[in-house]
Amino acid sequence: MSNVVVVGTGYWGKNLVRNFSELEALYGVCDTDLSTLERMKSSYPGIKLFSSFTEALSNNEVDAVVIAAPAELHYQLAKEALMAGKDVFCEKPLSLQTEEARELVELAEEKKRILMVGHLLEYHSAILKLKELIDSGELGKVNYIYSSRLNLGKIRREENILWSFAPHDISVILLLLGEMPVSVSAHGGNYLHHEIADITVTNLSFKSGVKSHIFVSWLHPYKEQKLIVIGDKKMAVFDDVDKEDKLLLYPHRIDWVDRIPVPQKEDAQRVDFKMGEPLKTECLHFLACLKTRSSQEPMERRALPS
């Protein structure tokens, strides 16, 4: 088993610490907050504590680093880790500049290191079930996908709402369709800070004819996380906020009467699947990549039991 050090143990990092500990791969944690390190030590006796990233990288027993620091630090930390010969799991976004992200990919290839970006929803059981339904033709030809990720906060000052929220939806849409867009446009509004967008709408067009729209905001009166897929046979709704009916199918259809489209509505059908913890599956994927030295997806993600 590889020895992993989690860098940044705050809001999200603590969840990565827990999972890698449960998977018996947690070697240590790195954080500049000494009180946080002490709390980690009491919760996970026996792990190594690093207050310096350089110190963690210089430790020959460390095989990989997991970066959960603020977004503006991702590029520099990932670059230093790759240069030190460590494998890297980095929470999204990999960088706030596309040129820097490309540089990291090229550096990982040059150093023959694993570089993985955390896209949690790609490991969500409902999303994998939805992909299965699309691939099997259950929904028919996909016409368009609409996604919304809305809430009041968490408001950031390092990156705008597009970089903070939308990567989740973009990664899922690319996973479901299995193709890259031929055109992308994004429009936003700045209300709390003149240089940071609080709301954005992104449009993606694909060669297959599919259109996709992504609406994200941290200035919204209630929490909403929905992905809607419109096919010519059925429509699907993934609602990550709903605890019971996370994935529903609507067998609505359009009949043509006297050359006029007439909608025929049907009741929603609940789709059952076995729910696991997406983050644990994602961590397992990273550890599998470290073992095989390959980016091939393991069975935990490709074929979750439904």
Description of the molecule:
The protein has helices at 13-22, 34-43, 53-57, 74-83, 98-111, 125-136, 161-164, 166-177, 278-292, 299-302; strands at 4-7, 26-30, 48-50, 64-67, 87-91, 115-118, 142-152, 181-189, 199-206, 211-217, 219-231, 235-239, 247-250, 253-257, 260-264, 269-270. It is α/β, with parallel strands linked by helices. The chain folds into two domains: 4-118 and 278-302, NAD(P)-binding Rossmann-like Domain (Rossmann fold, 3-Layer(aba) Sandwich); 122-270, 2-Layer Sandwich (Dihydrodipicolinate Reductase, domain 2), CATH 3.30.360.10. The strands form three sheets. The chain has an eight-stranded mixed beta sheet with strand order 8-9-10-7-11-12-13-16, with helices on one face. Strands 3-2-1-4-5-6 form a six-stranded parallel beta sheet, sandwiched between helices. A two-stranded antiparallel sheet has the order 14-15. Strand 14 (253-257) and strand 15 (260-264) form a beta hairpin. Helix 4 (74-83) runs parallel beside helix 5 (98-111). The protein is elongated, with a radius of gyration of 21 Å. The two termini are 29 Å apart.
Level-1 CATH class name of the largest domain = Alpha Beta
Query: How large is the radius of gyration?
Result: 21 Å
Strand elements, count: 16
Biggest sheet features: 8 strands, mixed
CATH topology of the largest domain: Dihydrodipicolinate Reductase, domain 2
Report the β-strand fraction as a percent range. 25-35%
Which shape, going by the Cα principal axes? Answer: elongated
Structural class: alpha/beta
The CATH superfamily name of the largest domain is Dihydrodipicolinate Reductase, domain 2
What is the number of independent domains? Answer: 2
Number of H/I helices: 10
CATH-derived architecture of the largest domain: 2-Layer Sandwich
- Specify the helix fraction band: 25-40%
Order of strands, main sheet, comes to: 8-9-10-7-11-12-13-16
